[in-house]
Amino acid sequence: xxxxxxxxxxxxxxxxxxxxxxxxxxxxxxxxxxxxxxxxxxxxxxxxxxxxxxxxxxxxxxxxxxxxxxxxxxxxxxxxxxxxxxxxxxxxxxxxxxxxxxxxxxxxxxxxxxxxxxxxxxxxxxxxxxxxxxxxxxxxxxxxxxxxxxxxxxxxxxxxxxxxxxxxxxxxxxxxxxxxxxxxxxxxxxxxxxxxxxxxxxxxxxxxxxxxxxxxxxxxxxxxxxxxxxxxxxxxxxxxxxxxxxxxxxxxxxxxxxxxxxxxxxxxxxxxxxxxxxxxxxxxxxxxxxxxxxxxxxxxxxxxxxxxxxxxxxxxxxxxxxxxxxxxxxxxxxxxxxxxxxxxxxxxxxxxxxxxxxxxxxxxxxxxxxxxxxxxxxxxxxxxxxxxxxxxxxxxxxxxxxxxxxxxxxxxxxxxxxxxxxxxxxxxxxxxxxxxxx
Length: 438
Description:
Helix content: 25-40%
Number of domains: 2
CATH superfamily of the largest domain: Alpha/Beta hydrolase fold, catalytic domain
Distance between the termini: 52 Å
Oligomer: single chain
CATH architecture of the largest domain: 3-Layer(aba) Sandwich
């Protein structure tokens, strides 16, 4: 197996420096197909860059669309989308819905948002997300909410348990990188599972789209976790206190991965929080975690080639660059491991364990032993540091991975391609811990 530097994609920052307006490109690709669906092939031809127009005629576009309709039926909508940077171009993959089924298409755009190519993509081999077995839609309702900030807003969902008045609410805080409100990773949606499971236990939840996914252009300069996470988490906490049905004295925060690392910091800024849940939360510096993860993945790959070894060495060098504590001669927007220097300095100078020791909130630390991204070592650090805190509770789950689902082995990132839901026992433990405060 070839060694790949997947640690950045799986755990941390990779796409934060993607400054192109991703949503604009996705909308443009959809509009291109909708234009052809309306038979406006001359207009559709205008979507292409001048360098490409001569290579594909209006008649060829028309013939392509007629063949597509004959095979898949009438174009209806976009069912899903992904994006990535490919050198100087931007790639958008849309899963398009037709009357006879769905089909992914890849669109390539240049920096002026002009098409330079598109083609049919192979259908994904990974399985689709599946609702957990503990889903019971008769036990909860969902309502759209908005998390607002000075420059805009993010869509969110309030999941409320039925037949329960004055219910506790848990605000779900994402891990690193852009993420939707379900914290989708491969075929898994841990935040959706948590919302469904907690609602069945009589507990509400708030989840929302992460700002880096909706406003990527706001993150093409120097920034810190304040802009990425803290501001929106605090806005969600404030909003929770205004929502009908929510017990204003029973507002909790569940931080996953980076969100768990920042949970004590958020609690120190939000006196209305009753407690925080640290799920797979790093207790060490990021660079230490990435180093551990990098070494684990390299050994697990079995790649003994000189190229694999060289890649591992280069990865280690890149990780060490993220350890800086002050700027020195480096500009704040200098990119290191996909994030600006200002981001790493902010993280490296904050002591999440020390902050947790100072706050008065109830704390519940949960960790899976089959997590290769945040290890049991971090759990033990939390447990030792907070041992004297009577408000702190700890539980290690032998079979859970980083996405809080049960697994037979520790594995690697390929595990996330298989649908697996958040463990019901973890959800019941969280529920019981919350209800102890009543």
